[in-house]
Amino acid sequence: MDNSPTALFESYDEDFKALLASLKGKLEGDVKQLKGEQRKAALKKVSEELDEAEEIIAQMEVELPSMPVSIRQTFQQRLTTSRSALERVKKSLRDIRAETSRAELLGSGASPADDPYSDEPSGYSTRTRLLAGSEQLQDGSRRLDNAQRIALETEDLGAGILRDLRGQREQIEHTRDTLTQADSSIDRASGTLKKMIFKMYQQKFISGAIIAVLVILICIVLYSKIIG
């Protein structure tokens, strides 16, 4: 199995596209046909799948720094396109949730004769509830957007930490290679020094032998002169 960053990115991208197609199908078809608790359950399932899609996007982002620089920009553009598609699906989910909440408010508080925008007391009460519900939805959307922003910042921070760790690992490996080369150089220098020491002792021995021979010859010559 190819575990290169490019191959992993392609694998994540395929999973993301399949999941995105499933999400679109549910939001545009299945969810809209359901009512009440069934719709809520379907929306919860869609939300869980959106979290899964977010995780896939995060994994794709982690693989980017490990790619060759020559192709990294192309995959960055693909990641941006995928994230934009995911944001559109999120917006569709928020719209459906808002629609569901409005329907529940109308169904629980208004009679058939009530007009939500009427100036009559009953209509005014319904309109008040609608406005309150709308404000709650907007507040929830703001919290969701803030949570998403924090998640993106956390992902960026995590990607930065991974890049730093990868750089430190490369520095450690480079240092280890340098130490290995230095150790080899020391071994070669030690061998050369041993050879030099051996030759030095060899030369001393030869020099000593020559001196000894010369002394003997001088003694022989002197002895010969004395005898003669």
Automatic annotation (TrEMBL):
For this UniProt record, the keywords arranged alphabetically read as follows: Coiled coil, Membrane, Protein transport, Transmembrane, Transmembrane helix, Transport
Which GO biological-process labels does this protein carry?
A: Golgi to vacuole transport; intra-Golgi vesicle-mediated transport; intracellular protein transport; macroautophagy; retrograde transport, endosome to Golgi; vesicle fusion with Golgi apparatus
Gene3D superfamilies in UniProt: 1.20.5.110, t-snare proteins
Which SMART domains does the UniProt record give? t_SNARE (SM00397)
TM segment ranges: 205-226
Q: Which GO terms describe its molecular function?
A: SNAP receptor activity; SNARE binding
Main subcellular location:
membrane
Every T-SNARE coiled-coil homology domain range: 129-196
Q: Does the keyword GTP-binding apply?
A: no
Where, subcellularly, is it found?
Answer: Membrane
Cellular component GO terms, alphabetical: cytosol; endoplasmic reticulum membrane; ER to Golgi transport vesicle membrane; Golgi apparatus; late endosome membrane; SNARE complex
Q: How does it sit in the membrane?
A: Single-pass type IV membrane protein
Spell out the residue ranges making up region: Disordered: 103-124
Task: Give the matching CDD domains.
Answer: SNARE_Vti1
Top-rank taxon of the source lineage equals Eukaryota
Please report the name of this protein according to its UniProt entry: t-SNARE
**Which species is listed as the source?**
Dioszegia hungarica
